[in-house]
């Protein structure tokens, strides 16, 4: 996720303080991982340098956190371009799990066990997400569903791999 | 292995073969009151057979099944039927509502099988339909309602006797994810509110995620993931 | 639309008909059998008039008319023939003694050469009867050697018992009634006597009643497996066939079934034709060769039946829209209307009404009106039943779960249920009406003259010339005969030629005379004048007056034996004789008869039998035959006829039962089809803990409710039709409750059988396997 673009986008509705920006971000997108202040300010100074934002004013008694930022025309254009550019689908070609399974097979360990344990772990996560979804509002449900679908995809892979373990073992052994 | 203490329904070393096909090969299971346990596994793994054995619909070839301290193997068909009528509830993939009966009559059916009078059975049925938000369908026939509505009617029918154990076999299998979600939510909520144990057979992880715990069946053998981890 | 496309569609349908797996075959077979039975019945129906005509011709061709007071002179082409018909148990035996008088004497039809004296030629049926154990008694009565059989042309039925026996000296026994000299066989004046209108009516009704359920069944058979077929057609639509093509495919399927039916029908007909040779109804049997339907009618049947099944199929498809993704039933069908359904039976009654009270004496019934009326009444049943089922089922209230399941199912598809039951209802309605008609008409046909069967059960006429007293003694010694009283009768005229008045004369010994009058005292030689008879002739009983035995009438010469009324005559009060007649005229003991007068009298013996002796009648008949082959023994009884009716009722019941069984089989097939479609649901219900009893009972109710309604309606219509038909024949209306009950019982038996037979598959389907086909 591009934090720079996200912050820019938040500025489009009007100038804000860095502190406000962090709060708005956390509230809407930062469910699990709140932004660090440092992250906000380093990002803002980069945007400032690139001319995408400008300082709208500094409150008295100010440390660096008392700056008020506003988006520039170039900034608006940049946000627009970002939104219009499709994200490159994640391909997950580098998979730790796959590596683990192959290694287990190479070392004659129980690969099915690895898969089962992993599946239990995935389900545990899914159960937590489902529970949170049950209690949460629509935003919670959407974000949890996104995660659930990804986990489900992993689980499907686990199932498929479990069903193909024998074949895989034969190929690895060659 | 002995059944874990406090379990409502437990099975040990179940074996069942249909002709040359081995469906269960030493499967075990246990569930506590109020617990939702998912039975997972690929198709053909024997999970439906496990459910049928647990529910006393099919007698296993060997192994023991105890429900509330009673051994199912020692019961005859009539006793097991009576048990299913009074203590168990069932939801199937395709609702399996009786097409000639109206929805409320369908929901009232298990009560009537237990000998409740028609009027009282239908009153209770209507209450359950309200809880599952399908009370406006009471006078419609199953052919006239959507799949998701029909499945909710089926859930109401399964819960109308306030069973101790609810068996659900792919209850969302025929539904889209939105309707599936809703049915699972209503089903688990309702079951929790009556502290019914739910045996949930599914191959979908997202459905299994509504459970408290899962058991994986593969090649007729079961694996309790909680104990494994 | 090109022909080849048509042909392809039809052929595809035909292929579907044969490739539906085991179930498809069963359905196909049932359709075929149903259509086949219909075709066979139709063919038989068209053959019956022909058969009756052939029978009549043969009867005419062998006629030997022995009546007439003149005798033609002996020539080389004459023969003397004597009628020696007898009865054996319940069967008539046509018997003839023949004596050719010259080499050119014609042979009777079916006979190759005249049997010699003491020989006989017999019909095949008589031959086998005589050879069997049961025919021993008859064997004694016909002490002739069998030298040949009578060919088919000489017989009117395969079961006819007949013989020609060679005799000698028959000419001396020519009596112008039983024995006469002839020079040809065949009716000298062929009559175009028409069949009894009531019998024609019976025949008509029998065939309509038998054909109707078959027609209904064909209509129902054409809809067998309709839902499955509709789904198949929907699949065809999905791959691009248009609605006309699917309709043609359906027609092809129906056509295949009815063609199979035609083939089966031909087989059934040929089998039935052969079987017709071995049955006998109301003493009428036919030869298979009689049953040849006219070719035109055969063609008509061969075209009409397949056309009808295709029409029914297309009609059934009218209410269905077959879309590529499934079958859409025409929106909830409009509520069935009553008025036009009521119109049918009312119209039927209206057609029959003008013939009420017509009876048998006013010529034939209008065949079209009769058939039309009966058909409309029976069709009315099929029209009323769906309405009745729908209306009643809609009002059926709550009950047990089984009842609720059955009633709800019926409410949803009352039409299907009614269609299945229609055949049963029509069969039962027809059978009840027919049995009423049979029993009513039969009781009229068997109404006996008021013979007093408590005093005598047989009367044997003894040819003149045979000593009566000896004959009576012989009878008295016969096993099973309690008492034998010989009497003779004659006529006394007031002049020898063309008497102006004449009186009755009864001759017998004192004991025998007491059967007809209260005698103050009696010994041989006495003459009595009867008083209190039905036609007293006191003017003749004047002492000294000369009367003449056997007076001559113009043309007919009598013996004209003179007798003077004696001075001392006793008076005797006439009492009812065994035939319940009070005689009048004179009584004479044999000693009072003038010389030669005995020959002018006709003699007979009243027999009182001990019915506890088995075959008493047959022994008496054997004795009669011993005394003279021409002695005619007639049994008085009213019990035999009702026995005959019992056999008709049995036959009808068997026929109706066969139709019911056929319909039951189709009910079963559709029931099983329906159950199979619901196997998952059934398994689910079992999972809930539904008892087998509950589901079994629901299947029972589901069959029983429509059949009960059908039987109720059928009984009403059947009784109405029966009453109307009886009124038409001017017969008192009497309900034959036994047949009503037996038909209702047969219907109930079908329900039970269908339910019982669907139980094993039901229980098999209730096994949880049905749940595990995901």
TrEMBL record, chain A:
Gene3D superfamilies: Winged helix-like DNA-binding domain superfamily/Winged helix DNA-binding domain. InterPro entries: Tscrpt_reg_PadR_N, WH-like_DNA-bd_sf, WH_DNA-bd_sf. Residues 7-78 form the Transcription regulator PadR N-terminal domain. Pfam families: PadR. This is PadR family transcriptional regulator. It comes from Streptomyces bungoensis. The lineage of its organism: Bacteria, Bacillati, Actinomycetota, Actinomycetes, Kitasatosporales.
UniProtKB/TrEMBL annotation, chain B:
One of its GO terms (cellular component) is plasma membrane. GO terms for molecular function: ATP binding; ATP hydrolysis activity; transmembrane transporter activity. SUPFAM superfamilies: P-loop containing nucleoside triphosphate hydrolases. Keywords: ATP-binding, Nucleotide-binding, Transport. This is Macrolide ABC transporter ATP-binding protein. PANTHER family: ABC TRANSPORTER RELATED (PTHR24220:SF685), IMPORT ATP-BINDING PROTEIN (PTHR24220). SMART domains: AAA (SM00382). The keyword ATP-binding applies. It holds the Pfam family ABC_tran. Residues 9-229 form the ABC transporter domain.
Automatic annotation (TrEMBL), chain C:
InterPro entries: ABC3_permease_C (IPR003838). One of its GO terms (cellular component) is plasma membrane. Keywords: Cell membrane, Membrane, Transmembrane, Transmembrane helix. It comes from the Bacteria. Residues 205-318, 655-759 form the ABC3 transporter permease C-terminal domain. Pfam families: FtsX. It is a multi-pass membrane protein. It is found in: Cell membrane. The chain crosses the membrane at residues 198-222, 254-276, 296-317, 338-356, 368-389, 651-670, 699-725, 737-757. Its main location: membrane. This is ABC3 transporter permease C-terminal domain-containing protein. The lineage of its organism: Bacteria, Bacillati, Actinomycetota, Actinomycetes, Kitasatosporales.
């Amino acid at each position: 996720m591009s934090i720079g673009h996200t912050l820019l986008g938040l500025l489009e509705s009007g100038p804000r303080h860095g502190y406000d920006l962090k709060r708005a971000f956390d509230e809407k997108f930062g469910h699990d991982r709140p932004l660090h202040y440092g992250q906000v300010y380093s990002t803002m100074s980069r945007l400032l340098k690139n001319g995408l934002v400008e300082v709208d004013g500094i409150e008295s008694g100010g440390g660096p956190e008392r700056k008020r930022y506003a988006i520039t025309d170039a900034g608006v254009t940049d946000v627009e371009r970002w939104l219009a550019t499709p994200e490159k689908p994640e391909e997950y070609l580098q998979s730790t799990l796959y590596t683990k399974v192959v290694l287990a097979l190479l070392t004659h360990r129980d690969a099915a066990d690895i898969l089962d344990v992993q599946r239990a772990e995935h389900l545990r996560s899914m159960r937590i997400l489902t529970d949170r979804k049950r209690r949460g509002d629509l935003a919670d449900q959407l974000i949890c569903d996104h995660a659930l679908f990804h986990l489900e995809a992993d689980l499907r892979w686990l199932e498929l791999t479990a069903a193909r373990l024998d074949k895989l073992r034969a190929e690895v052994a060659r | 292995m002995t059944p874990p203490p406090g379990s409502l329904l437990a099975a040990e070393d179940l074996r069942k073969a249909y002709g040359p096909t081995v469906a269960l090969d030493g499967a075990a299971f246990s569930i506590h009151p109020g617990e939702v346990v998912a039975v997972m596994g690929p198709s053909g793994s024997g999970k439906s057979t496990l459910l049928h054995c647990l529910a006393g619909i099919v007698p296993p070839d060997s192994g023991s099944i105890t429900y509330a301290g009673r051994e199912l193997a020692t019961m005859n068909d009539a006793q097991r039927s009576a048990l299913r009528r009074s203590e168990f509830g069932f939801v199937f993939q395709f609702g399996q509502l009786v097409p000639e009966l109206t929805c409320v009559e369908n929901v009232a059916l298990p009560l009537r099988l237990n000998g409740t009078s028609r009027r009282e059975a239908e009153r209770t049925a209507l209450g359950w339909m309200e809880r599952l938000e399908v009370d406006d369908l009471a006078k419609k026939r199953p052919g006239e309602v959507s799949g998701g509505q029909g499945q909710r009617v089926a859930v109401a029918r399964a819960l109308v006797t306030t069973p101790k154990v609810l068996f659900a076999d792919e209850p969302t299998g025929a539904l889209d994810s939105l309707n599936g979600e809703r049915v699972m939510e209503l089903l688990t909520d309702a079951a929790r509110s009556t502290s019914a144990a739910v045996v949930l057979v599914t191959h979908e992880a997202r459905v299994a995620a509504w459970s408290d715990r899962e058991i994986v069946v593969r090649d007729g053998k079961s694996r309790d993931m909680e104990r494994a981890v | 639309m090109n022909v080849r496309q048509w042909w392809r569609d039809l052929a595809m349908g035909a292929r579907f008909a044969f490739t539906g797996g085991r179930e498809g075959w069963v359905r196909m077979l049932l359709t075929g059998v149903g259509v086949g039975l219909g075709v066979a019945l139709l063919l038989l129906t068209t053959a019956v008039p022909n058969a009756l005509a052939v029978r009549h011709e043969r009867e005419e061709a062998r006629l030997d008319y022995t009546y007439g007071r003149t005798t033609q002179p002996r020539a080389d082409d004459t023969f003397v023939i004597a009628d020696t018909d007898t009865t054996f148990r319940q069967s008539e035996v046509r018997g003839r003694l023949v004596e050719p008088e010259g080499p050119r004497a014609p042979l009777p039809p079916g006979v190759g050469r005249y049997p010699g004296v003491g020989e006989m030629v017999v019909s095949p049926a008589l031959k086998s009867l005589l050879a069997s154990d049961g025919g021993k008694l008859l064997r004694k009565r016909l002490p002739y050697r069998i030298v040949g059989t009578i060919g088919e042309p000489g017989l009117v039925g395969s079961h006819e018992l007949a013989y020609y026996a060679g005799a000698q000296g028959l000419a001396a026994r020519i009596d112008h009634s039983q024995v006469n000299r002839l020079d040809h066989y065949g009716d000298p004046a062929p009559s175009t006597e028409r069949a009894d209108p009531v019998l024609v009516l019976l025949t008509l009704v029998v065939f309509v009643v038998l054909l109707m359920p078959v027609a209904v069944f064909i209509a129902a058979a054409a809809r067998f497996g309709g839902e499955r077929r509709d789904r198949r057609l929907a699949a065809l639509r999905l791959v691009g066939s248009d609605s006309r093509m699917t309709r043609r495919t359906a027609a092809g399927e129906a056509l295949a079934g009815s063609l199979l039916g035609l083939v089966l029908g031909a087989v059934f007909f040929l089998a039935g034709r052969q079987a017709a040779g071995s049955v006998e109804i109301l003493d009428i049997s036919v030869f298979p060769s009689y049953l040849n339907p006219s070719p035109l009618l055969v063609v008509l049947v061969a075209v009409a039946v397949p056309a009808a099944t295709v029409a029914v199929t297309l009609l059934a498809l009218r209410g269905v829209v077959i879309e590529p993704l499934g079958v859409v039933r025409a929106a909830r069908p409009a509520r069935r209307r009553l008025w036009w359904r009521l119109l049918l039976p009312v119209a039927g009654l209206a057609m029959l009404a003008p013939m009420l009270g017509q009876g048998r004496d006013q010529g034939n019934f209008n065949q079209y009106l009769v058939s039309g009326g009966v058909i409309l009444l029976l069709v009315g049943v099929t029209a009323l039943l769906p309405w009745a089922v729908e209306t009643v089922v809609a009002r059926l209230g709550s009950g047990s779960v089984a009842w609720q399941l059955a009633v709800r199912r019926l409410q949803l598809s009352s039409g299907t249920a009614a269609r299945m039951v229609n055949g049963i209802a029509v069969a039962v309605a027809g059978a009840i009406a027919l049995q009423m008609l049979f029993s009513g008409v039969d009781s009229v046909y068997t109404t006996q003259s008021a013979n007093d069967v408590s005093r005598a059960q047989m009367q044997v006429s003894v040819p003149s010339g045979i000593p009566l007293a000896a004959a009576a003694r012989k009878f008295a010694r016969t096993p099973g005969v309690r008492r034998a009283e010989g009497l003779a009768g004659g006529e006394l005229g007031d002049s020898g030629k063309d008497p102006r008045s004449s009186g009755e004369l009864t001759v017998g010994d004192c004991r025998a005379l007491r059967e007809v009058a209260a005698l103050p005292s009696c010994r041989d030689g006495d003459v009595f004048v009867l008083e209190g008879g039905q036609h007293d002739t006191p003017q003749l009983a004047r002492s000294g007056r000369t009367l003449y035995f056997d007076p001559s009438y113009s043309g007919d010469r009598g013996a004209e034996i003179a007798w003077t009324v004696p001075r001392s005559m006793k008076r005797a009060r006439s009492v009812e004789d065994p035939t319940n007649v009070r005689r009048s005229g004179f009584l004479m003991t044999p000693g009072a008869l003038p010389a030669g007068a005995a020959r002018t009298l006709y003699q007979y013996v009243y027999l009182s039998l001990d019915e506890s002796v088995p075959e008493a009648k047959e022994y008496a008949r054997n004795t009669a035959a011993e005394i003279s082959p021409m002695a005619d023994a007639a049994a008085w009884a009213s019990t035999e006829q009702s026995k005959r009716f019992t056999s008709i009722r049995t036959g009808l019941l068997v026929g109706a039962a066969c139709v019911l069984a056929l319909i039951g089989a189709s009910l079963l097939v559709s029931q099983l089809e329906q159950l199979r479609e619901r196997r998952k649901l059934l398994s689910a219900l079992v999972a809930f803990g539904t008892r087998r009893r509950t589901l079994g009972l629901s299947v029972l109710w589901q069959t029983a409710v429509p059949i009960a309604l059908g039987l109720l309606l059928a009984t009403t219509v059947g009784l109405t039709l029966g009453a109307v038909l009886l009124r038409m024949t001017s017969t008192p209306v009497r309900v034959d409750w036994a047949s009503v009950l037996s038909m209702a019982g047969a219907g109930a038996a079908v329900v039970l059988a269908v339910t019982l037979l669907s139980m094993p598959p039901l229980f098999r389907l209730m096994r949880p396997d049905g749940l595990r086909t995901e």
